[in-house]
Amino acid sequence: MYPQVEPYAQGMLDVGDNQHIHWEASGNPHGKPAVVFHGGPGSGSNPVWRQDFDPDHWNLILWDQRGTGKSTPPASDPDTSMEHNTTQHLIDDAEKLREHLGIEKWLLMGGSWGSTLILAYAVQHPERVSEIIIPAVTAGRPEELEWITRGLGMFYPDYFEAFRNGVPEEEREGNLARAYNKLLNDPDPEVREKAAWDWNKWDLSTITGGDNDFTGTRYEDPVTRYRMARVVTHYWGNDCFLEPNYIFDNLGSLSGIPGVLIHGRNDFGSPLSTAWEVARRWPDAELVILNDAGHQASDGGSMSKAIADAVERFR
């Protein structure tokens, strides 16, 4: 873990559609470029990622995807349209940012939703990717989204019942992310607030393995709570705006790009099978399975060490 140095540059990039994405660069301006694709969708970038990169060696880029973090307009404003917020928009934004910064190739890093976005970006722009590091592998397939919104109910029947009952009865057997997204865009602020609470309650329960009233988490803030719920249900309710097997069918494009896939065996939200299949279809990637880790990068020292080892390997 390296010192969390302050950015040497940052700005707002106009990417069209009245959207401006926030970016920052830290470390060595002449160093090897690396970029982090944050998770969520909707979480925004986290400066803690700086600690994984030697600031004397790396030119590290962090950016906030549309509507998140410091990017504008904010998805936390219910009046902000989500029409121009799709996976393809984000892929194009990353390319515009790379061109804006004058970077020819960069290492890609990120997990969970960041994994899906990284893989979707890389199969479209393999010539712009030097290496890939993914802790917590996902591919945005409908079965993955169905698992995390319904299948996990077999492990958390009490929390799942409350989660499912948060939507109208006639929508409880359908796409729960889509049903919640309708509530999160309701004109009544009380309806929106309750939906944000119920959605994030389920999400946090499945990650932590138990109940939590949001104390000490980012979900304590009602604005963050609403933004996270609104953005993630927008993406999951639309199958991540990807064809069902888009990433799996195009992993051949990554031939020759080295990668490290890091996955916790105890990751209930994103079962190991997805990482296993990605590794099988991408021969240049190594899969590191951690027996003591779950979904979050903070789960166990082994996850932090595996990420640090991967970054050092590609320096």
TrEMBL record:
<dbReference type="InterPro" id="IPR029058">
    <property type="entry name" value="AB_hydrolase_fold"/>
</dbReference>
<keyword id="KW-0963">Cytoplasm</keyword>
<protein>
    <recommendedName>
        <fullName>Proline iminopeptidase</fullName>
        <ecNumber>3.4.11.5</ecNumber>
    </recommendedName>
</protein>
<dbReference type="InterPro" id="IPR000073">
    <property type="entry name" value="AB_hydrolase_1"/>
</dbReference>
<keyword id="KW-0645">Protease</keyword>
<feature type="region of interest" description="Disordered">
    <location>
        <begin position="65"/>
        <end position="85"/>
    </location>
</feature>
<comment type="similarity">
    <text>Belongs to the peptidase S33 family.</text>
</comment>
<feature type="domain" description="AB hydrolase-1">
    <location>
        <begin position="35"/>
        <end position="297"/>
    </location>
</feature>
<keyword id="KW-0031">Aminopeptidase</keyword>
<dbReference type="InterPro" id="IPR005944">
    <property type="entry name" value="Pro_iminopeptidase"/>
</dbReference>
<dbReference type="Pfam" id="PF00561">
    <property type="entry name" value="Abhydrolase_1"/>
</dbReference>
<keyword id="KW-0378">Hydrolase</keyword>
<dbReference type="InterPro" id="IPR002410">
    <property type="entry name" value="Peptidase_S33"/>
</dbReference>
